[in-house]
Predict the structure of Cytidine deaminase.
Amino acid sequence: MTSEHDAAGGGSAPTPGSGAGERSAIDWEALRTRAREVMTRAYVPYSRYPVGAAALVDDGRIVAGCNVENAGYGVTLCAECGLVSDLVSGGGGRLVAFTCVDSRGQTIAPCGRCRQLLWEHGGPELLVETAWAGIIPMSEVLPGAFGPWDLEAGTLADPSTPAATDNEKETPHG
Protein backbone atom coordinates (compact mmCIF):
# COMPACT_ATOMS: atom_id res chain seq x y z
CA MET A 1 0.00 0.00 0.00
CA THR A 2 1.35 3.43 -0.98
CA SER A 3 1.13 6.11 1.67
CA GLU A 4 0.41 9.73 0.84
CA HIS A 5 4.00 10.47 1.84
CA ASP A 6 5.28 7.96 -0.72
CA ALA A 7 3.00 9.49 -3.34
CA ALA A 8 4.50 12.89 -2.59
CA GLY A 9 7.97 11.77 -3.53
CA GLY A 10 8.98 9.33 -0.79
CA GLY A 11 12.23 9.58 1.11
CA SER A 12 12.47 11.32 4.42
CA ALA A 13 9.74 13.77 5.27
CA PRO A 14 10.63 17.34 4.42
CA THR A 15 11.16 19.63 7.33
CA PRO A 16 11.19 23.41 7.48
CA GLY A 17 14.53 24.73 6.33
CA SER A 18 15.57 21.40 4.80
CA GLY A 19 14.79 22.38 1.23
CA ALA A 20 11.20 21.11 1.50
CA GLY A 21 10.10 23.97 -0.71
CA GLU A 22 12.63 23.30 -3.46
CA ARG A 23 10.87 22.61 -6.75
CA SER A 24 13.04 19.55 -7.47
CA ALA A 25 12.12 17.89 -4.16
CA ILE A 26 8.38 18.05 -4.86
CA ASP A 27 6.41 15.52 -6.89
CA TRP A 28 4.10 17.99 -8.61
CA GLU A 29 2.47 15.25 -10.67
CA ALA A 30 1.41 13.45 -7.46
CA LEU A 31 -0.14 16.68 -6.22
CA ARG A 32 -1.96 17.23 -9.54
CA THR A 33 -3.21 13.64 -9.49
CA ARG A 34 -4.57 14.01 -5.95
CA ALA A 35 -6.22 17.33 -6.85
CA ARG A 36 -7.88 15.70 -9.88
CA GLU A 37 -9.11 12.79 -7.75
CA VAL A 38 -10.67 14.98 -5.07
CA MET A 39 -12.12 17.33 -7.73
CA THR A 40 -14.41 14.45 -8.80
CA ARG A 41 -16.01 14.60 -5.33
CA ALA A 42 -16.92 18.29 -5.52
CA TYR A 43 -20.53 19.24 -4.76
CA VAL A 44 -21.38 21.76 -7.50
CA PRO A 45 -25.10 21.61 -8.40
CA TYR A 46 -25.26 25.37 -9.11
CA SER A 47 -22.10 26.42 -10.95
CA ARG A 48 -21.21 22.96 -12.27
CA TYR A 49 -17.58 24.06 -11.84
CA PRO A 50 -15.77 21.42 -9.77
CA VAL A 51 -12.41 22.32 -8.25
CA GLY A 52 -9.87 20.13 -6.49
CA ALA A 53 -6.84 21.27 -4.52
CA ALA A 54 -3.89 19.39 -3.06
CA ALA A 55 -0.84 20.45 -1.08
CA LEU A 56 2.29 18.95 0.39
CA VAL A 57 2.73 19.50 4.13
CA ASP A 58 6.13 19.98 5.78
CA ASP A 59 5.85 16.51 7.38
CA GLY A 60 5.34 14.78 4.00
CA ARG A 61 1.55 14.39 4.08
CA ILE A 62 -0.63 15.39 1.18
CA VAL A 63 -3.80 17.24 2.13
CA ALA A 64 -6.65 17.88 -0.28
CA GLY A 65 -10.05 19.48 -0.64
CA CYS A 66 -12.84 20.10 -3.12
CA ASN A 67 -15.39 22.87 -3.44
CA VAL A 68 -18.78 22.45 -1.76
CA GLU A 69 -21.53 24.76 -2.99
CA ASN A 70 -24.62 25.94 -1.18
CA ALA A 71 -27.85 27.53 -2.37
CA GLY A 72 -26.85 30.51 -0.22
CA TYR A 73 -23.82 31.34 -2.39
CA GLY A 74 -22.06 33.23 0.41
CA VAL A 75 -21.56 30.03 2.38
CA THR A 76 -20.06 28.05 -0.50
CA LEU A 77 -16.69 26.55 0.44
CA CYS A 78 -13.80 26.71 -1.99
CA ALA A 79 -11.54 23.68 -2.42
CA GLU A 80 -8.80 25.45 -0.46
CA CYS A 81 -11.12 25.65 2.58
CA GLY A 82 -11.48 21.87 2.52
CA LEU A 83 -7.73 21.49 2.08
CA VAL A 84 -6.96 23.66 5.12
CA SER A 85 -9.59 21.80 7.15
CA ASP A 86 -7.85 18.54 6.16
CA LEU A 87 -4.52 20.08 7.23
CA VAL A 88 -5.75 21.23 10.64
CA SER A 89 -7.85 18.14 11.44
CA GLY A 90 -4.90 15.94 10.46
CA GLY A 91 -2.59 17.52 13.03
CA GLY A 92 -1.56 20.81 11.45
CA GLY A 93 1.76 21.68 9.91
CA ARG A 94 2.87 24.12 7.22
CA LEU A 95 1.98 23.90 3.56
CA VAL A 96 5.07 23.81 1.32
CA ALA A 97 3.61 23.19 -2.18
CA PHE A 98 0.10 23.78 -3.58
CA THR A 99 -1.85 23.16 -6.77
CA CYS A 100 -5.49 23.58 -7.77
CA VAL A 101 -7.31 22.17 -10.83
CA ASP A 102 -10.61 22.51 -12.67
CA SER A 103 -12.79 19.80 -14.27
CA ARG A 104 -10.36 19.50 -17.20
CA GLY A 105 -7.47 18.92 -14.81
CA GLN A 106 -6.01 22.29 -15.76
CA THR A 107 -4.19 24.38 -13.18
CA ILE A 108 -6.26 27.34 -11.98
CA ALA A 109 -5.59 30.23 -9.64
CA PRO A 110 -6.91 30.41 -6.10
CA CYS A 111 -9.35 33.29 -5.57
CA GLY A 112 -8.30 36.23 -3.41
CA ARG A 113 -9.93 34.87 -0.26
CA CYS A 114 -8.19 31.54 -0.72
CA ARG A 115 -4.83 33.18 -1.37
CA GLN A 116 -5.15 34.74 2.09
CA LEU A 117 -6.14 31.36 3.56
CA LEU A 118 -3.13 29.67 1.95
CA TRP A 119 -0.82 32.46 3.17
CA GLU A 120 -1.93 31.83 6.75
CA HIS A 121 -0.93 28.15 6.54
CA GLY A 122 2.04 28.31 4.19
CA GLY A 123 3.49 31.79 4.40
CA PRO A 124 5.47 33.65 1.76
CA GLU A 125 7.63 30.66 0.82
CA LEU A 126 4.71 28.31 -0.02
CA LEU A 127 5.23 27.22 -3.63
CA VAL A 128 2.11 27.64 -5.76
CA GLU A 129 1.62 26.14 -9.20
CA THR A 130 0.10 28.77 -11.48
CA ALA A 131 -1.10 28.75 -15.09
CA TRP A 132 0.47 32.16 -15.77
CA ALA A 133 3.98 31.84 -14.29
CA GLY A 134 4.59 28.19 -13.45
CA ILE A 135 5.67 27.48 -9.89
CA ILE A 136 6.16 30.64 -7.84
CA PRO A 137 6.29 31.52 -4.14
CA MET A 138 3.15 32.71 -2.38
CA SER A 139 4.83 36.09 -1.88
CA GLU A 140 4.40 36.62 -5.65
CA VAL A 141 0.84 35.27 -5.71
CA LEU A 142 -0.26 37.53 -2.85
CA PRO A 143 2.19 40.42 -2.50
CA GLY A 144 1.66 42.60 0.55
CA ALA A 145 -0.42 39.95 2.32
CA PHE A 146 -2.19 40.68 5.60
CA GLY A 147 -0.70 38.58 8.39
CA PRO A 148 -0.52 38.12 12.16
CA TRP A 149 1.97 41.00 12.41
CA ASP A 150 -0.75 43.35 11.12
CA LEU A 151 -3.03 42.30 13.97
CA GLU A 152 -0.26 42.78 16.51
CA ALA A 153 0.57 46.24 15.16
CA GLY A 154 -3.04 47.36 15.37
CA THR A 155 -3.89 45.86 18.76
CA LEU A 156 -4.61 48.26 21.61
CA ALA A 157 -2.33 47.80 24.61
CA ASP A 158 -5.29 48.49 26.90
CA PRO A 159 -8.62 47.24 25.49
CA SER A 160 -10.49 49.87 27.54
CA THR A 161 -8.64 52.68 25.73
CA PRO A 162 -10.61 54.03 22.78
CA ALA A 163 -8.93 53.75 19.40
CA ALA A 164 -7.11 56.87 18.26
CA THR A 165 -8.80 58.98 15.63
CA ASP A 166 -7.09 59.38 12.28
CA ASN A 167 -5.77 62.79 13.38
CA GLU A 168 -4.27 61.36 16.60
CA LYS A 169 -2.53 58.35 15.06
CA GLU A 170 1.22 58.45 14.73
CA THR A 171 2.53 57.41 11.35
CA PRO A 172 6.03 56.36 10.34
CA HIS A 173 6.24 59.58 8.31
CA GLY A 174 5.46 61.93 11.19
Summary: Confidence is low (pLDDT under 50) at residues 1-21, 169-174.
